[in-house]
Amino acid sequence: MDLQAMIGVAVAEARQGLSEGGIPIGAALIGPDGEVLGRGHNRRVQDGDPSMHAETAAFRNAGRRRHYRDTTMVTTLSPCWYCSGLVRQFAIPRVVVGEATTFSGGHDWLAEHGVEITIVDDARCVELMTDFIAAHPELWYEDIGE
Fold first, then answer.
1. Which of 13, 20, 35, 55 is catalytic?
2. Residue 13: Cβ-neighbour burial (10 angstroms; 0-12, 13-18, 19+)
3. Dihedral, CA of residue 83, residue 84, residue 90 and residue 94, to nearest 10
4. Tens digit of each residue's pLDDT, the chain (146 residues)
5. Which of 10, 71, 77, 121 is most exposed by smallest CB count within 10 Å?
6. SS3 call for 19
7. Backbone angles phi, psi at 84, to 5 degrees
8. What is the pTM (predicted TM-score) of this model?
């Protein structure tokens, strides 16, 4: 699966979250053969659960594996510290980031600890977040803990 296809899965999830009244962040955990193991979107608003970030949802939806050393986490937005911790905890070696313009989370820290980071700067991802932040700043600042 190429980068654009991977980001496309995450963008579809982000759009799903937005259509549900949530924050438009999507993610997917991709296996070594390009199979989508799990996908998800930020569900903090929908579920009233502050821990249900997109990466967390994708990880949970992937189910149990013996290890995650051959997977790639794809996310529409630079992962926050919480989700960066998930990547480190389970030794996910690669993270593909749709954009880090509207929010720069823990991707530099992940890179410093040996995680391969690819920032795509996808216009769809930037537009989703820019439009959402302008329309719902209170939800956005709640999501990032400010």
1. 55
2. buried
3. 110
4. 899 999 999 999 999 999 999 999 999 999 999 999 999 999 999 999 999 999 999 999 999 999 999 999 999 999 999 999 999 999 999 999 999 999 999 999 999 999 999 999 999 999 999 999 999 999 998 887 77
5. 121
6. helix
7. -65, -40
8. 0.95
Q: Per-residue DSSP letters for 120-139?
A: ---HHHHHHHHHHHHH-HHH
* DSSP reduced 3-state for 20: coil
d(CA 60, CA 13): 14
55 is annotated as an active-site residue: yes
DSSP for 85-120, written as a single string: HHHHHTT--EEEES--SS---SHHHHHHTT-EEEE-
Q: Which residue has the tokens 């989700």?
A: 83
For residues 60 and 91, what is the distance between their CA atoms, to the nearest angstrom?
15
- Both structure tokens of 7: 């980001």
